[in-house]
Amino acid sequence: MIRLDGGSLALEQVAQVIYSKEQVEIRDEAWTKIKRSRAVIDSIVEQGQKVYGVTTGFGKFSDTVISAKDAERLQINLIRSHACAVGEPLPPDTVRTMLLLRANALAKGYSGITASALKLLVDVLNARIVPLIPSQGSLGASGDLAPLSHLALLLVGEGEAIYQGERLPGAEALRRAGLKPVTLKAKEGLALINGTQAMTAIGVMAYLDAQRLALLADGIAALTLEALRGITDVFAPDSHLVRPYPEQCLVAGRILGILKGSSLTTVQGEIRIQDAYSLRCIPQVHGAVQQVLTYVKEKLLIEINSATDNPLVFPDTGQVISGGNFHGQPIAFAMDFLGIGMAEIASISERRIERLVNPQLNDLPAFLSPDPGLQSGMMITQYTAASLVSENKTLAHPASVDSIPSSANQEDHVSMGTTAARQAAAIVDNGYKVLAIEAICAAQAAEIRGAELLAPATRKLLNLIRSAVPPLTEDRSMSGDIERLARSMKTQDWLLEEIQS
Q1: What CA–CA distance (Å, rounded) separates 2 from 133?
Q2: Confidence label for 498 from pLDDT (cuts 50, 70 and 90)
C-alpha cells in the first residue's frame, strides 16, 4: 500500500502503483489538513468574500463576482468548458500517473478540496478506471487545464473512460466499479484542474523509460565494442579520474565490468591505436546523459510533491493566496533537457550501427549479410536508425522557448511544458528503436566473431536479444524484429541489475 501525504512520494513508488498495481490511500494526518483547508473555503463562501476561483470567474473573468448560490454551477461549468483537448488519447499508464500525482498534490492540504472528491479520485485510481484524456491542448500554464479537465469530467460522471478493457461513458465506468460521481463544491473544479500533473505524469513516464534506456545503452554498446574488437584501455579509471565527472567514471567502470572475461576486446596497438569517437567516447557521452537524468529526477521529485494550485489555501492563517505555482517552467526546462540527452543516446548509437554494417569501417561481411551482394543483410536498418535520429533532432527543439498569450492576455506567458514532455517521450520511444537496431546488428556481428568469445555478461545479453530476434540467415523484413525487441527492452528484466553492478 502506498500512502500519500503530498510530500514524500518517490518515483519508485509511482512505478509500483503503475506497473505493480500497488493500491493507494491517503494518510490520516493528511486528511486532517485537507479538512482544515476545506473549512476555509466554506467560510469564504458563507461570508461572501471575494476570492479568485471561489467567488469570482476565471482568467480574464477574475473580476466578475459570482454569488454563493452559483458557486457549484461555476465549478461544473469550469470543467465542461475547459475539457477541450484534442488528439490521440494519452497512454493509460500516463493517465493513471496523472491520477496519482493529482491525488498526492491534493493530499498536501492546500487546495480546499472536499474529502469526498479526493476519496473518489483515489478510488478511481485503485479501481484502474482510466479516463480518456486527449494528448494535445495544454499550454503548461495555468497548469494543464484542458487535460486535467477531462480527468475531472469522470469524477462528475461525464466524459469517457476505459474500464476492464472497454471504452465507456464516464458514469457507466463508475457504476460498474461500484462508485458514484460527486457534485463539485466551491473551488473544487479549480482544485482538480489547476496544476502541472499532465506534463509531470508524461515526464515521469518518460524519465523512467529513459533511465532504463540509458542503462541498456551501456550494455548494448559493450556488445558492439566486442563485435568491433574495440580497445578497452580508454575505459581504465586513470583517464577518467583526471576529468572527474562522477557519471563519466561510473559509465567507464560499468563498461569495463560488463566486458570482463571477453576474448574479443583489444588493447592499444594490438589492431589499431585508436577507436572512433562513438566507441572511444562512450563514457563521456553516456556519462553526460546520466547527468541529464540526475537533473531531471531532481526536478520531478520536487514537482510531484508540490502544491501547484491557484489559489492556495493556508488554514493556519486563513489566507488564500492567488499565485503562480501552476506555471510549468521548471518541468518544461527539464523535459527539453531530457529530450536533448536522450536524442544523443540515439545519435551515438546510430554511429555505432554504421560502424557495424559499413564494410569500409570493419572487417566483417558487408552489411552483416549472409551472402553479400545477393542479400542486403542489415543495410537498411541503418537507414531506419538514421531516420529516427533525424526525427529526434526536430523533436529536441526546445518547446520551453515558446509562449503564446491566452485568456485575453491575462495569462501572457506560458511554459509549453506539456509539449516539451510529449516531445521528450517521443524521443525516448525512438531511442528504444534505435538501440534495438544496434542490439540486432551487434548480436549478428558477435555471432560472426564467435559467441563463445564474448564476456559472460554480453553472452547473456546476446541470449536475451536472441529470445526476441532470431539470427539473420537470409533477407527478411526486419520491422517486426525491431519493434518486438524495442518492446522487450522496455518490459523485460534485461540484465539491468547485472549492468548496474
Answers
A1: 24
A2: low
User: Is the separation of the CB atoms in 24 and 2 below 8 Å?
Assistant: yes
Cell numbers at 140, concatenated: 503548461
Cβ atoms of 362 and 369 within 8 Å: the answer is no
Q: How far is CA 304 from CA 118, 199, 222, 250, in A?
A: 17, 11, 35, 28
Rounded Cα gap, residues 179 and 183, in angstroms: 13
Gap between the Cα atoms of 284 and 287, Å rounded: 5
The CATH code that applies to domain 203-406+414-500 is 1.20.200.10
In 3D space, the residue among 59, 341, 105 whose CA is nearest the CA of residue 200 turns out to be 105
Domain boundaries, the chain: 2-195, 203-406+414-500
Pairing type for strands 24-26 and 130-131 reads unpaired
Q: Are 496 and 212 in contact (CB under 8 A)?
A: yes
Residue 304 CA to residue 317 CA, distance in Å, equals: 25
- pLDDT at site 406: 86
pTM above 0.90, yes or no: yes
CA gyration radius, the chain: 26
User: Cα–Cα distance between 310 and 53 in angstroms, integer?
Assistant: 8
Region 484-499: mean pLDDT is 82
* Phi-psi map region of 16: left, alpha, beta (phi>0 left; psi -120 to 50 alpha): alpha
End-to-end CA separation in angstroms for the chain: 29
The C-alpha atoms of residue 156 and residue 322 are separated, in whole angstroms, by 25
Q: Give CA–CA dist 463/261, Å, rounded.
A: 17
Short-list 261, 320, 276, CA closest to 458 = 261
Phi-psi region of 390 (alpha: psi -120 to 50; beta: other; left: phi over 0): alpha
Q: Could you say which of 52, 110, 163, 207 is catalytic?
A: 52
Homologous superfamily assigned to 2-195: Fumarase/aspartase (N-terminal domain) (1.10.275.10)
User: Is 52 tagged catalytic?
Assistant: yes
Asked if 384 and 483 touch (Cβ cutoff 8 Å), the reply is no
Contact 435, 489 (CB under 8 A): yes
Contact status, residue 206 vs residue 335, Cβ threshold 8 Å? yes
What size, in residues, is the chain? 501
Amino acid at 73: R
Q: What is the mean pLDDT of residues 277-282?
A: 98
Q: Scan for cell 566486458, then name that residue.
A: 259
Q: What separation in angstroms does the CA of 261 have from each of 220, 226, 266, 394?
A: 16, 11, 12, 41
Q: Which residue has the cell 542503462?
A: 215
